[in-house]
């Protein structure tokens, strides 16, 4: 489904300076050098960190996204390794100081079993005291309210909207709608997501040996609350 928005991803979801500041704050606390960005999309975050002197690898399941990221890296002469890969198939032989997984990527697993497997893989990828930073929507609120309001994104080239339907404790249907004003084309697509609730994911992190877990409502380090739009997690490998 992400083929529909790959070419416009960086415009629809621009990288915010606060996101980079937040991540770099934690990278500096452990003197991190090597970073893996899971679900790197069009590569903007990975490239921004590379420009700040970090060694960065980025993976995404969508080949079109990775092709765009590689083109950006070539244009800016940036030494970032971008690869089309499933996060459940990562090779734990390579080690990182920090693993990032932003953009609501984790809920794209199909079950809690897969999520548990993913967290275990990430734990194995991290060096001792390594940090795992991930961001998801506040699914506690979404499931409780059985709804969520997404802002429409529009400019002179496109109209992009998204919606959640069929909201249950175990599955959510994620729908996107993209109208290309230049070409006059209109496309829709959907996929299923796992509603990853805060308490459950914290339990999985603890069970896998992660410690010092914190949850924020944004990249300004505000404490997560009941009605926030999304949650940002920071956990450290024991």
Automatic annotation (TrEMBL):
Q: MF terms per GO, please?
A: methyltransferase activity
**PANTHER family membership:** METHYLTRANSFERASE (PTHR43464), UBIQUINONE BIOSYNTHESIS O-METHYLTRANSFERASE, MITOCHONDRIAL (PTHR43464:SF19)
Q: Which parts of the sequence belong to the Methyltransferase domain?
A: 35-130
Name any Gene Ontology BP term: methylation
Origin, by domain of life? Answer: Bacteria
- Keyword GTP-binding attributed: no
State the protein's name: Methyltransferase type 11
UniProtKB keywords: Methyltransferase, S-adenosyl-L-methionine, Transferase
Endoplasmic reticulum is among the record's keywords: no
Pfam families named among the record's database cross-references = Methyltransf_25
